[in-house]
Amino acid sequence: MADKIKIAQYWGAGCGGCDVALLDIDASILDLHAIAEVVFWPIGFDGKLHELEQMPDKSITVAFYNGAIRNSENEHVAKVLREKSVIMISFGSCACFGGTPGLANVTNKEEVFQTVYKDTESTDNPEFVTPQTSVKVPEGELTLPEFYDTVKTLDEVVDVDYFMPGCPPTVDLIMVAVGAVLKHVKEGAPLPPKGTVIASDKTLCDECDRERVETDRRIDRIYQAYEIKADPKKCLLDQGIICIGPATRAGCGAMCPVANMPCRGCMGPTKAVMDHGGSMLSALASILNITDSESKLSEEQIIELMMQVKDPIGTFYAFTLPKSLLKRTVKERKRKG
Ligand code: SF4
Ligand code: SF4
Ligand code: SF4
């Protein structure tokens, strides 16, 4: 055991899929077991926070933190893990960019509580009782983490060494990361530069085999994936289905287009892209004939075209809203009356 690297994995605000992804490595788990000892993984081994807090600083070789930062507990565990670990990896789209939990940044804590604890038909809560961080009961004090107004990414609360995007990251990427750490520990091989994204630097379109229209690319209608039978050989975007591939980092093997479904962008933006959704919006505008200086479209026609995009935030920022230039859309909504 002494020669093994020590690994920790934690689940913040996420769906648990990233934890399952570690188990998905199938037979490779035997390779992992041969080289690594898991010292903290609450989902896998029922580890307790106080056990983590008692570990010596930097005694964990590598910590994989998945999930976004939604509440004070997520942030506290992230900070403890940071202290205890030599290498901290932001694991999965939720940790890297906010992911799907980050879509809650279109609203705020007050409205989330209003919906969940009052307005839903399955809720009977006339006094609008909501979670409190501290409640006195005869037996003593009960506490809950503080629910934040804004969903944050992991690197907003701790120093992150590497980023591994994906919803969840693929087995190949996981094995690349574990292999690099092992080579470093066993052979003294240099680690990648701090801040490296463990994935390709190319765009998803570069690793997608579909045929693209190379010149004078134009579409005049946007379809939802279920509205047409897409040609499995041709680029989905060229067929009018919004595929986020042009703005998205490669590394997943273009698995959604391979399955005849458009990319939703879970690998996040490439290094060259500052804002994932903004970049895709710009790519879409160019093939919708909107940005062309010779465009004959009137403003009404442009609005009509863009109105075909159902759920713009969910389309362009499905995984990256907290990491976008927008970050969030609502701070405080003025109540009517
Ligand atoms: S990145 Fe995807 S799989 Fe991982 S926790 Fe978030 S939603 Fe789940
Ligand atoms: S837009 Fe989508 S379907 Fe088209 S080449 Fe890029 S990844 Fe493939
Ligand atoms: S194709 Fe897009 S949405 Fe699908 S796994 Fe790859 S990056 Fe994620």
CATH superfamily of the largest domain: NADH:ubiquinone oxidoreductase-like, 20kDa subunit
Distance between the termini: 66 Å
Strand order, sheet with most strands = 2-1-3-5-9
Can you list the ligands bound to this structure?
iron/sulfur cluster
What is the CATH third-level topology name of the largest domain?
Rossmann fold
Supply the helix-strand structural class.
alpha/beta
Supply the number of helical segments. Answer: 13
Average pLDDT taken over every residue: 91
Task: Write down the overall geometry.
Answer: globular
Count of extended strands: 9
Radius of gyration: 22 Å
Q: Biggest sheet: strands, sense, closure? A: 5 strands, parallel
| CATH structural architecture of the largest domain | 3-Layer(aba) Sandwich
Count of domain modules: 3
Helix content: 25-40%
CATH class of the largest domain: Alpha Beta
- The helix-strand sequence is EHHEHHEEHEHHEEEEHHHHHH
Uncertain stretches: none
